Amino acid sequence: QVQVVESGGGLVEAGGSLNLSCTTSGFTFDDYAMGWFRQAPGKEREGVSAISWSGKNTFYEHSVKGRFTISRDNAENTVYLQMSSLKAEDSAMYYCAAGRIRFGDPLNPDEYNFWGQGTQVTVSS
Are the beta carbons of 96 and 116 closer than 8 angstroms? Predict the structure, then answer.
């Protein structure tokens, strides 16, 4: 049974930091790229960051470059998203997902197969 569970969301003031974690089970973690996505009310789900199965390649949506850092621990089947200098526009439900990236677009939600239930991030301005 595949499980993808996000944690670490919460309420933070603008300029603050949060660290998200995503623990997984039920599939071969290091066979999959991992991605973080977010969805704000009334908006489409967008890719925030992704990391290759080995961790050697990382990808970021332009608005989070330099502020967010993705990493993974294949021994712990866990992926992380360190978020700093948070802005009000970063407020959203954040989702973690696992995918094979068959079409070369790691920030595209359609590339991902296994999804978590999300963790809410709210940044107060």
Answer: yes
Encode the chain (125 residues) as per-residue pLDDT tens digits. 999 999 999 999 999 999 999 999 999 999 999 999 999 999 999 999 999 999 999 999 999 999 999 999 999 999 999 999 999 999 999 999 999 988 899 999 999 999 999 999 999 98
Strand order of the β-sheet with 78-83 is 3-7, 18-25, 78-83, 68-73
E strand or H helix that includes residue 47: strand 46-51
- Residue-wise burial string across 59-86, b where 16 or more C-beta atoms lie within 10 A, e elsewhere: bbbeebeeebbbebeeeebbbbbebeeb
**By three-state DSSP, how is residue 30 classified?**
helix
Can you tell me whether residue 64 is helix, strand or coil? Answer: helix
